[in-house]
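Hello forum,

I keep getting stuck at the same step: I have a sequence, I want structure tokens, and every attempt I make locally crashes halfway through. Rather than fight my setup again tonight, could one of you with a working pipeline run this one for me? It's a single chain of 417 residues.
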Amino acid sequence: MTAQTFTFVFLAALALGTLTRLGLMLRHMRHVRARRDTVPADFAQRIPLDAHRKAADYTCARLRLGLLDVPVGVALLLAWTLGGGIELLHGALGAIATPGSLPHGVALLFAIGAVGALISLPFAVIRVFVIERRFGFNRSTPGLFVADRLRATLLALVIGTPVLFAILWLMQNMGSLWWFWVWLFWLSFNLVAVFVWPTFIAPLFNRFTPLDDATLKQRIEALMARCGFRSSGLFVMDGSRRSTHGNAYFTGFGAAKRIVFFDTLLERLGPGEIEAVLAHELGHYRLHHIWQRLLVGALSALVFLGLLAWLMQQEWYYAGLGVQQQDTATALALYMLALPVFTFFAAPLGSHWSRVHEFEADRYAASHARADDLISALVKLYRDNASTLTPDPLYSRFFDSHPPATIRISRLRSIAS
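Reply #2:
Ran it on my machine without issues. Output:
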């Protein structure tokens, strides 16, 4: 393959993916707007028209912001690659570190990430302080917002610096099989992170307190016993500091497993509904969904690293993306930037797999708690989180990790009856 051919393939894939994404977003917006004034029959008795309209307006507001965000992302990608941005940055950083050295490579990767974060910052501000505030969800303050960003940046530096040093060192010093050693390192790092995150990282951003509702705690412990699930504790997270959105999840493995409820979720749902939501989350664990995703993720990482190892030997890979430098960090940077362009059309496969898991977890929850309670909880969450009940089917199949509300509730009602 020549550099010119690869450039053409890259631009064609980028154009097709971008137009598809924007077209689906516009289609979704039109579909939601057209159904704004009619609550679906299955929800007419539980969700007021005002709440349904709010969900439609909220969905469209987020989509409008996305219609601006996508072109900016494309422009930045082209600026880094064919626009010569990486080449210029590579040369500029040569004044502080030897090109091709580990410090130079780490600085290059961090600088690319920092520029991306700065450009995405205005969109985050609009999302939190304009859209979320307009629809009554935001509770974050400018001070908290800035503090969160500073903590995340410091955390990225503290953790990311040694990780990037290790990856680049392995790529440069482990011969032709470096991709396998990087893969083993990456798996080990992620395994450690699973155990470290709940105890040391998450508390940097939120406060976690033990669940003190004795009746609810007893009910949840009985559910866990029925499901054969052991946890290191039940915790309540102060999600209300930043948003009114509610959720529940469990995190960690082995002795580090813990169940976490957003305080906003506990405020809105009754004991039976909380039990049903948790049964759904436990279903993902008991049905091995998490391990399946980890396995697929690990195998995908191995394949992608092997592909990178091959691409690094091809001159057209660098020249086709507008770069003359052929060192390790540049190859990795180009790969991280360009790979999403070529994997975009695999998104529906991942979304479909996720929706299958959601249906399976719903069935599991209905067998260990009351299906009617799960239905009631979901309806409340759809209403309170302003989730649209009328997504465009094609958009939903492409992007949504959860089934549309009407289909999901319909299946649960079949199970309940």
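Residues 102-134 form the longest helix (33 residues). If your local run keeps crashing, start a new thread with the error log.
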